[in-house]
Amino acid sequence: EELAQVPSEQKAAWEKYTVPEGNDVDSIARSIVHHTTTTLARTPYNMDDFGGYQATAHSVRDKLIQDWNETQQVRYGWYHTIKDPKRVYYLSLEFLLGRAMDNALLARGLKEPYTEATKQLGFKIEDLLEEERDAALGNGGLGRLAACYMDSLATLDYPAWGYGLRYTYGIFQQKIVDGYQNEVPDYWLTYDNPWELPRLDISIEVPFYGHVSKYSDENGRTRHKWEAGEIVQAVAYDVPIPGFDTNNTINIRFWSSKPRKEFDLAYFNSGDYNRAVEDQKKAENITSVLYPNDNHMVGKELRLKQQYFWVCASLHDILRRFKKTDRPWSEFPDQVAIQLNDTHPTLAVPELMRVLVDLEGLEWDEAWNITTRTFGFTNHTVLPEALEKWSVPMLEHLLPRHLQIIFDINLYFLQTVEKSFPNDRDLLATVSIIEESQPQSVRMAFLAVIASHKVNGVAALHSQIIKDTIFAPFIKVLGPDRFTNKTNGITPRRWLHQANPDLSNLIAKKLGSFKFLKELSLLDGLSKYANDAAFQKEWMDIKYKNKVRLTNLIKERTGIEVNPNALFDIQVKRIHEYKRQFMNILGVIHRYAKLKKMNAAQRKEVVPRVVIFGGKAAPGYYIAKLVIKLINSVGEKVNNDKDIGDLLKVVFIPDYNVSVAEVIIPANDISQHISTAGTEASGTSNMKFVLNGGLILGTVDGANIEIYEEIGDDQIFLFGARSEQVEDLRHVQRYRNVPMNPELQAVIHLIENGTFGEPHIFQPLINTITVGKDYYLISVDFGSYLESNDLVDEAFKDKKAWAQKSILCTARMGKFSSDRAIKEYAEDIWNIDVS
Ligand code: F58
């Protein structure tokens, strides 16, 4: 379109000089040298690994931009713009992308020539890859899921975009000082970020505060006008996401807040320099920091501002793109699907209504019809403390018109409920978007449910639980069809091919190709070799190599030396009471005490174990931070006990993040996913561990259940109370005097008598299972947890059987590819396909 307007003479020139760079070693080396001397303004004489990384990154970036252009832009015209298909927009406040370079090289099949080119220039590619800092714009599972989904959307050639916030500070870095977690700001943009393209020309004005006035339009209709009190500018930064083995390169648009220039000028003119500078700071504050809580809601105004800022900019960007096509509004839902990743973007609902009704002049009912056909909503938790509620006065102050619209949505909704269920006042109160608390608050999940044509949970059990509990009354009101399940998935590109290249290569050798990376159920072809001794050896040799790699990382980051022949038992995830890392370390203490009582003959029979922990605690989550301290205190004692030696080691790996996970996960023999039944919506690391040939020790919760259904009960050790029992068990714990599990009592006694240092430090933690009545049922599950641990040891003694289990784990993980999940979303929720 644009190029067509260039006079033919220049057009020929444009075409003549559009010479794509080659993918051969020479061209790549040339581009790295070029970026070294120009982009970095450095010379071969002052290069180090970081410079080598930067120059290489810029060279890779060039290729991604070219693919991005071809995918997105009108003038080159490819699928997205020529066919103008229905697009899907994934709105997520978090994208936990991790590193980009290795991923891009593997996606484009360029790892080999880049390895060779950098080698010729005097570098080792592994060292360069290590120089990259993680993009850590997320807390945990929810943000990483968004990243896996973007990878699948790109790989499967979907016309999709993500929208997020460009936080100046991502999730904090964790330092361990004297066994305690300290938080250090993650200023990840210190040395430019080659993986983003600043789009300073794309900027959207986002209004806040002010007041609403009414007026009559030319048809005599009452209309509303919101006059903002403050306007902040949203500037776009685009991050290309390359698909694997396709040129399709999609985009995540991250918004950054900037002050609006006109405002500054006004203050400058009146001589109020300080005020202008203050405003600048205030505007930049909005996207400055990622809130570091997982599964916990904080009702801060700045957080609400972030949400609206992001939603408003994203929606206007989407609307602008739609408007270019001159279609009627009624076709909007045929062109646009918007997925709400949790309730964080739910303000998009009143914002779309505001645009359609206030600005575009549509009737309410038509606008509502368009809105509900556009949105889908994914719920990720049932924990009450995580469900978003915003205070009505705060909303009224920050977004006065949106609050009115929310009240109107609620009014119309309750009227339809009233019609179908006359005189059921209780029902009206339970489904109301407005909670009659002091002050009133808005239940964002209810708003999202009412405004979306599909609501999904993230694993089968979780999707059932939301229907039975938090959204139960909506089944009655909206019917069961609105609710559906979309079991989470993970990208095998990052979590197998990139993280575990040796295993990926072995599998490809066995299956004849790398096709399994795009069609994961092909892994099933490994099953028939599970018993093959030669294959088992190759398989377990790779496992051993991966364990050595982790052993080195542990030594480097903690100073602890572990034996790679021991059983590696891993629990890495955010630290949270419901995830029960506390139970794990209590189990470790039990093991330690048991070892201490053994004689030499008994010790000979023991399977040496390395228990590995990792994960961040929210900075304000006191109990979670005490769990970290306890793990480190136990490690201190056990690891320095000469009498124990290699039989037991306890490691806390600091600063768990995506790139560390890529080293940890391939080294697992077993991983723990031991949440109280009914609390972990899905979990996704469970899938990554099993894909890498590990067994699971877990509760009957989240995706563990579906993993069990796929891999079979010889590959997974399930224990503990079932979710249906949890409510009763809690009641019993709370109101009857049930004695604590005796083994647990003995463990608590060891902590209290000072075996692991000053006992008073841990008293608040112990209180959660004694005075706190054990809400997460550690005492109830402790016995069966210990039994399962013993079964793990027994199984590990049989090396041949274990190898077979390990192979079968990987072979049976086909279902858990994020490709499968994305296809289900596309078909059942977004109604898009690629053809
Ligand atoms: C996680 N949620 C679930 N939330 O806990 C996990 O079971 C699931 O596998 C995963 O989502 C993907 O579906 C989660 O990570 C958060 O971290 C939110 C961040 C923003 C504040 C509220 C919690």
Description of the structure:
The protein is α/β, with parallel strands linked by helices. It has 3 domains: 20-83 and 100-133, no CATH class; 84-99 and 134-486 and 824-830, Glycogen Phosphorylase B (Rossmann fold), CATH 3.40.50.2000; 543-816, Glycogen Phosphorylase B (Rossmann fold, 3-Layer(aba) Sandwich). Helices cover 48% and strands 16% of the residues. The chain has a 9-stranded mixed β-sheet with strand order 7-10-11-4-1-12-13-17-18, with helices on both faces. A 6-stranded parallel β-sheet has the order 21-20-19-22-23-24, with helices on both faces. Strands 14-16-15 form a 3-stranded antiparallel β-sheet. Strand 22 (670-673), helix 28 and strand 23 form a beta-alpha-beta unit. The radius of gyration is 28 Å and the shape is globular. It starts with 7 loop residues before the first helix and ends in a 5-residue tail after the last helix. The mean pLDDT is 95. Bound molecules: N-[(cyclohexylcarbonyl)carbamoyl]-beta-D-glucopyranosylamine. N-[(cyclohexylcarbonyl)carbamoyl]-beta-D-glucopyranosylamine (F58) is lined by residues 139-142, 145, 293-295, 380-381, 386, 458, 488, 680-684, 702. Its cofactor is pyridoxal 5'-phosphate. It catalyses: [(1->4)-alpha-D-glucosyl](n) + phosphate = [(1->4)-alpha-D-glucosyl](n-1) + alpha-D-glucose 1-phosphate.
